[in-house]
From TrEMBL:
It comes from Rhizobium calliandrae. CDD domains: TenA_C-like (cd19365). It is an enzyme of class 3 (hydrolase). Its EC number is 3.5.99.2. Residues 19-226 form the Thiaminase-2/PQQC domain. Catalyzes an amino-pyrimidine hydrolysis reaction at the C5' of the pyrimidine moiety of thiamine compounds, a reaction that is part of a thiamine salvage pathway. This is Aminopyrimidine aminohydrolase. The gene is tenA. Transmembrane segments: none annotated.
Amino acid sequence: MDGIRQGTETTESFTDAAWDRIKPIMVEIERLPLLERLSEGTLPPEVFRHYILQDAIYLKHYARCLAIVAAKAPDNAQVLRFLGSAQKAITVEQGLHAGFLMQFGISSADVSAAEPSPACFAYTNFLLATAYHSSYAVALSAVLPCFWIYWHVGEGIKSKPAIEGNVFQAWINTYGDPQFAAGAREVIALTDIAARAASAAERRQMSDAFVRAAQYEWMFWDSAWRLEKWPACPTLPGCKIA
């Protein structure tokens, strides 16, 4: 995204190169029906309800991933800087969820009973495994796409003429907000700092983790649009995994 590039630099940063790698994925994300219909205010309520429940599950696990990544930071300055950015993002998203849960009649019991879709389950487990088993730099690269892609998508939708009465306007405002952008820029900057200290092999792992997480971002939104459920699993109580 051109907005974060440092115009005075003559060499491409790690995050510039990583973003270039996911451009084909971003093309597919930007044309996702869920995001198009959300921006128009015509997203079916049952789709948004499914999405926001899955996002609540995701955020619970993502918060833990961020804590693990922060614990692996090489110095206190990066620990505090990363935790600050992560805390802002989580607080904002939790507030957004609370508003939408009430607006769409989703109870706390509904949230507690919700199970992760296959895409949500795969994505959160990828992030948790990467956070636990990889270096700080690689783990940081895995959590970055969530910050960056939501910022990019939010800004893109917010730049379009607002649709009067769009019930999803709070979502658009949240991810198109300058404060959310500032948090994303912070994590981008920390990732570049980590990349400069990494070996060539580690940078390749960082880039691969970044790409994989971006693919999961596409899968998450696409699965919500399709109201994805687990295959070969009848709607019986015995099929539920505790």
